[in-house]
Design a protein that fits this description.
The protein is of the alpha+beta class and 202 residues long. Helices cover 51% and strands 6% of the residues. It folds into 2 domains: 2-76, Glutaredoxin, CATH 3.40.30; 87-201, Glutathione S-transferase Yfyf (Class Pi), Chain A, domain 2 (Up-down Bundle). The chain has helices spanning 10-21, 41-46, 66-76, 87-116, 127-148, 161-172, 185-195, and strands at 2-5, 27-30, 54-56, 62-63. A 4-stranded mixed β-sheet has the order 2-1-3-4. Helix 1 packs parallel to helix 3 (66-76). It is globular and about 50 Å long. The mean pLDDT is 97.
């Protein structure tokens, strides 16, 4: 099997981080998304949405949503669980993963796409939308800071995919000058903790 990805993009990094936590080796194939390689007929045949990452299994089956890829490997390798074990734990991790996805990861992505014009050859950037998306992401950082004043990790006391999603988003946020503020001490404590994990360098 192999994963088609772009090393500098935050969504593929989420999968690399997840697999590194589980010590799962993988063959990564780099795709030039700035040059539009992901839009080619070959890549569209693997993912009609023309996005990365794409996991291609040995039989040609493709999975092309990053959390779905993570779910696939969570089921194959349940040791070192990152999506929970009990019904309550699974629900709480899924809840915070989705909150981080919609409140931070997606907002930073929209801020980047619409305020920088990076993909203006294939979309119509709306600068005002990018500004608002950045503001929404900033609001979520404050929600995270409050949450982390009471918990070690985003979904509770165990490291999970929710933390991976959030830290990948925050790191990518630097390209649009979105950073943790000095007053967000709980968020900074969590960020330093998660970033110190060996898998964070994947």
């Amino acid at each position: 099997m192999k994963i088609y990805e772009t090393k500098t993009a935050p969504t593929p990094r989420r999968v690399r981080f997840f697999l590194a936590e589980k010590n799962i080796p993988m063959d990564y194939v780099q795709i030039d998304i700035q040059g539009g390689e992901n839009l080619s007929p070959v890549m569209r045949a693997k993912n009609p949405m023309a996005k990365v990452p794409v996991l291609e299994l040995d039989d040609g089956t493709c999975i092309y949503e990053s959390v779905s890829i993570c779910r696939y490997f969570e089921e194959l390798y349940p040791q070192t669980p990152l999506m929970g074990t009990t019904p309550l734990e699974k629900a709480q991790i899924d809840m915070w993963q989705r909150q981080a996805e919609f409140g931070l990861f997606m907002q930073i992505g929209m801020c980047f796409q619409h305020s920088t014009g990076y993909f203006k050859d294939r979309m119509s950037p709306v600068a005002e939308f990018g500004k608002v998306a950045g503001e929404e992401a900033t609001k979520f950082l404050e929600i995270m800071n409050d949450r982390l004043s009471q918990h070690t990790y985003l979904a509770g006391e165990k490291f999970s995919i929710a933390d991976i999603t959030a830290v990948c988003a925050i790191d990518f946020g630097r390209v649009v000058k979105l950073r943790i503020s000095p007053e967000q001490t709980h968020l900074q404590r969590w960020y330093d903790l998660v970033s110190s994990r060996p898998a964070a360098r994947a």
